Amino acid sequence: MSRFNEEVIREINSRLELADIVAETVQLTRKGNRYWGLCPFHQEKTSSFSVTPDRNMFYCFGCHAGGDMITYIMKRDNMDFREAVEYLANRAGVTVQKESPAARRKQERARGVVAANLAAAQLYREILLSAKGKKGLEYLQERRLSPEIVEKFGLGFAPDNWNTIEDYLFKKAFSQEQVKSTGLIKRSDQQNRYYDLFRNRVIFPIHDQRGEVIGFGGRVLDGSLPKYLNTPETELFSKRKNLYGLYQARQAMRNLNQALVVEGYMDCLKMHQAGIENTVATLGTAMTQEQARLLRRFVEEVVLLFDGDDAGQREALRAVEVLRAEGLKVWVVSLPGGKDPDDYLDLYGKEEFLQYIQNSKVDHIEFKLNRYIETETELNLDTRIRIIKAVQKDIASLESELEKDYYVRLLSRRLQVQENLIRRELNKGSSGRSSELNKSGILRDNTRYGKSSLEERLLVSMLKNTVIFEQVQETVGLNIFRNTQYRQMIHSYADLLPINDHSWDDLGNIARLEGFASAYARVSFLMEEEPGLKPVEVQGIIRRIQMRRRELRWQKLQERLNQISEDADFDQLLRFILDLDTFINPTHKGVTT
Q: How do strand 301-304 and strand 329-332 relate by DSSP bridges?
């Protein structure tokens, strides 16, 4: 979670008062149990900056900056996390090395590898822009990548030499153990020496969600195999647990509540270059549970844009199951003619590409049905039954009867089976109904109850009362929160709750790393102000939140109706009718958006 023992941070908080630190540069006035002053982070004439002394938290109601003592020092003095903790520890007289010797050695190793990775990325970048990188630069230009996108993602080039990276990192005073731990060199057993993993390859640095370089990918230029190569698994890097482009895409993903997932580096780069910045790529592996959970921290909806060939569609089918298991809404887009996003963007441009995605994306049920039918050599009785069973649970989970009817009719038409027989088959084993996934889109709930929104009242109550937390989790799920930072906060809290007696305190540490420190600070403020709901009041608040969503949903339906032309096709009209029916008959437990 951090590079310091959490007890060190707790000890700092127990010895220092944030109000004293703030008062060094801001004139504070006590009002009730808080201090108020002019915000040091933006120009203002009326005090909107508050400090809550018993929690050592600050929050500005003007610019929405907020966080704990460490966040304040980071912002005030332009320090990174490590520097801020060390500064405060020194001031408080706290020794930061409280971890076990083994833990300290592990952290030191990790810091060394991160530094070595960064140095390697800088070297690859310098080589790309030099005469030695001419081939690499020409390749990127042939692929129509702009200098801006090359710089944004830190692309580089590894020349066709055996010891470029090893010699460079040794000169930079990195030890052989540190260089080995990057995975950038391999040992030759025959010659008893090390050599560079990447040679004659365009280099794609891989960042974690904090922006640190944790690994590399390389694309060979001479036609040899493998065409793409990643650094091996290390203490820092695992292909299963990371996504290419996540650091660059994370803010757009949060804003849109949607991620586009592609298969390769180049597809991801071209999407970002076209301004489709909520795009990430898998790292040469099938979609994993770890990657799905990583996506879930940022979004509720995923659009898969895998290659249109058979291999790409097989991967999409596997990815659908993994993503659905983590509670994500999934759409699939199959590009025509075996093209990938890179090809399509080059041929048709951004606007036509986005229009194609919108018009041709299908939900997970229809994609599975299409895929199963396409891969069967003949539709005999056995294959028909197998296909129906393959989508049985998906259809049974739908709450709208009209939506179920749509899929029954679709199955009947595609499989040439009578509707009543399909209904009978679907009813077998469908005794339970699972809750419908929430739809996408971010709604900033402006309904106010005193100083807090309905969502904030519910969130505070869940954090204060585990009974209410479990009640909401079991009835409507944690994705009821449309504010992305609140949703991220409650998911992180849920991860901590079963294993940690200090869940709320440790959530503050996660907030710094995951980018919701301001929301955490505001909720800390509200924890003091709000008395919290009683369990019997929870359903009422949920219904009011849902009513607000229905208002927004109705507005969106009206906009769609105005856009439907007289010559609209049957499928377009039917989907609108299905959505309208879902709106009119909201029998599901999830949130109506």
A: parallel
Cβ pair 344, 360 in contact under 8 A:
no
Distances (CA, A) of 457 to 60, 252, 303, 530, 538: 19, 27, 32, 7, 10
Do you find a cis peptide bond into 226, omega within 30 degrees of 0? yes
**Angle, CA of 126, 130 and 131, to the nearest 5°:** 150
**pLDDT class for 128, splitting at 50, 70, 90?**
very high
Secondary structure E strands in 412-451:
448-449
**Residue for token pair 């040679």:** 199
pLDDT for the residue numbered 198: 96
pLDDT at 51 over 50: yes
Four-point Cα dihedral 241, 247, 252, 254, nearest 10: 50
Least confident piece of the model among 171-175, 429-433, 538-542 = 429-433
Tokens 């096709």 correspond to what residue?
Answer: 569
- DSSP letters, 28-73, are -EEETTEEEE--TTS--SS--EEEETTTTEEEETTT--EEEHHHHH
- Determine the Cα–Cα distance for residues 204 and 217; give it in Å rounded to an integer: 5
pLDDT at 220: 96
Confidence (pLDDT) at 451: 45
Give the 3-state secondary structure of residue 282: coil
Q: Which conformational region is residue 492 in: left (phi greater than 0), alpha (psi within -120 to 50 degrees), or beta?
A: alpha
pLDDT in tens, 259-303: 999 999 999 999 999 999 999 999 987 899 889 988 987 788 999
Q: Is the pTM of this model over 0.90?
A: no
What CA–CA distance (Å, rounded) separates 492 from 6?
17
Cα-trace Rg, the chain: 27
Q: What is the DSSP letter of 244?
A: B
Burial class for 501, CB neighbours closer than 10 Å (0-12, 13-18, 19+): exposed
Catalogue all structural domains in the chain, each as residue range(s) with its CATH number: 6-92 (3.90.580.10), 101-237 (3.90.980.10), 246-366 (3.40.1360.10), 376-427 (no CATH), 443-593 (1.10.860.10)
Burial label for 187, CB within 10 Å (0-12, 13-18, 19+), is exposed
Q: Is residue 404 pLDDT above 50, yes or no?
A: yes
Q: What is the C-alpha end-to-end distance of the chain, expressed in Å?
A: 34
